[in-house]
Amino acid sequence: MSIRRTYLIDDVQKCVFRLLRQLTGAESPWTSWNVIEGYPEDRVFEEFDKPFIYVLKPVVTGAYRQQGGLPNYLMEMVIGMWDDRKTGGPEEINIIGSHLLELFMNPQSLYSKKFNVTLGTTSFTDTTLAAQGLRIKNIKGPKELKVKAVKEFRREFTLFLRS
Questions:
Q1: How many CA atoms lie within 13 A of 82 on its CB side?
Q2: Cα(100)–Cα(94) distance, rounded to whole angstroms?
Q3: Which of 29, 75, 129, 139 has the smallest count of CB within 10 Å of its CB?
Q4: Which helix (H) or strand (E) segment is 157 a member of?
């Protein structure tokens, strides 16, 4: 496990973000989307040239110990999708959602996806979520969310992880 226990929240977010960023730079239809780390800021909407996926920080929901060792953490993380009519609309949101479901619910595919990440001062090349000590337990959603602009569409998944 490479995720640092003292930086658990940031490292988990960074690993999931870098995995999705790697996909959007390499595989179709992922190349049609952007990925941002954290909740979108105003500049993201000013540059709204394609749909985007956002990765929020995980929330620790529990912990368990095996044979008195250090605890393993149970976490939930929100992964959202945002689009507007000029770049695809609700149909594109459904396509993004379907690809996220397939990615996170297919362990053979998920744990073979490689990405590069730097955690602290250590860089990892061609690593996987499993190599970083993360296991995906489930994904729930998508949940449709209200937006101010009539022509924008937003949905979120909740990803359940264990480290």
A1: 24
A2: 10
A3: 29
A4: strand 152-162
Residues of the chain with pLDDT under 50: none
Q: Do residues 159 and 143 touch, judged by C-beta distance below 8 A?
A: no
Task: Write the CB contacts of 139 (distance below 8 Å, at least 6 apart in sequence).
Answer: 100, 101, 104, 105, 157, 158, 159, 160
Tell me how far CA of residue 95 lies from CA of 24, 33, 52, 150, in angstroms: 14, 11, 12, 20
pLDDT given at position 56: 97
Cis peptide leading into residue 29 (ω within 30°): yes
Query: pTM for the whole thing?
Result: 0.92
Within 8 A by CB and 6+ apart from 5, the residues are 70
Q: How far apart are CA 85 and CA 38, in angstroms?
A: 23
Q: What share of the chain is helix, strand, coil (3-state, %, to 5)?
A: 30, 35, 30
Q: Is 44 helix (H, G, I), strand (E, B) or coil?
A: helix
Written as one letter, the residue type at 12 is V
